[in-house]
């Protein structure tokens, strides 16, 4: 069978059905017990995957194992990780996992606007503005690509639940409510961009001020050291 052709031809519905099938097997065999594969594949073929043979379903579920391994999610051991995913398949699978709340996509930093606005403040100080700037009615739009990390939602959920609405940086409740809960953000103490892990031992719940302080302030290193000293759960990486 031509697997490359197989990969490119898969619809989002088929990919989602594969993910659902994978999760469904895990629900019914929570301890990774042995099960009858062909029976499971036939079950999948009775739905959206009717047009796929058992071999290509097997192949797709192996792809899912490879991706789950990368993301730190639980895998099914009888589907050995197969990483030869077709182009775009990984991104589409990640989108599906995000829509199911299994992972959270995160740029790893609250915003990078500060750096340029800081430069602007310095420039403004140097210049003597005689008149107030008018501004622009419709600012230009620029599309930028940002590196995005797929994180396990369970860790984020646990960190927020454990914080009970109180910032682990300043001890104050989140500054406003979102969905009825004090708003806090989840920060990776060793940044994801520095290969920090997505474990509880590297993650804190912070108010937006403390979060930005961690990323952008002059005392960010001292503040991070303070977090290590004062949040018992944290381990240096
Ligand atoms: Zn705070
Ligand atoms: Zn952060």
TrEMBL record:
Residues 154-212 form the HNH nuclease domain. It holds the Pfam family HNH. It comes from the Bacteria. InterPro entries: HNH, HNH_nuc. GO terms for molecular function: endonuclease activity; nucleic acid binding; zinc ion binding. Keywords: Endonuclease, Hydrolase, Nuclease. It comes from Pseudomonas hamedanensis. The keyword Hydrolase applies. The keyword Secreted does not apply. This is HNH endonuclease.
């Amino acid at each position: 069978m031509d697997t490359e052709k197989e990969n490119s031809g898969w619809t989002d519905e088929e990919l989602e059905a594969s993910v659902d099938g994978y999760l469904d097997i895990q629900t019914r065999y929570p301890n990774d017990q042995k099960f009858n594969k062909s029976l499971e594949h036939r079950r999948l073929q009775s739905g959206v995957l009717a047009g796929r043979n058992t071999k290509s379903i097997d192949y797709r579920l192996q792809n899912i194992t490879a991706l789950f391994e990368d993301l730190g999610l639980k895998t099914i051991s009888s589907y050995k990780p197969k990483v030869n995913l077709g182009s775009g398949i990984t991104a589409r699978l990640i989108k599906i996992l995000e829509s199911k709340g299994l992972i959270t996509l995160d740029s790893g930093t609250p915003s990078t606007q500060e750096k340029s606005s800081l430069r602007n403040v310095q420039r403004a100080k140097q210049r003597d503005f005689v008149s107030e700037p008018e501004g622009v009615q419709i600012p230009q739009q620029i599309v930028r690509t940002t590196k995005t990390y797929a994180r396990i939602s369970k860790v984020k959920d646990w960190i927020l639940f454990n914080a009970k609405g109180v910032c682990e940086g300043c001890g104050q409740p989140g500054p406003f409510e979102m969905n009825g809960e004090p708003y806090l953000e989840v920060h990776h103490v060793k940044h994801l961009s520095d290969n920090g892990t997505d474990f509880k031992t590297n993650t804190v719940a912070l108010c937006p001020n403390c979060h930005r302080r961690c990323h952008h302030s002059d005392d960010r290193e001292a503040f991070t050291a303070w977090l290590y000293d004062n949040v018992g759960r944290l381990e240096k990486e």
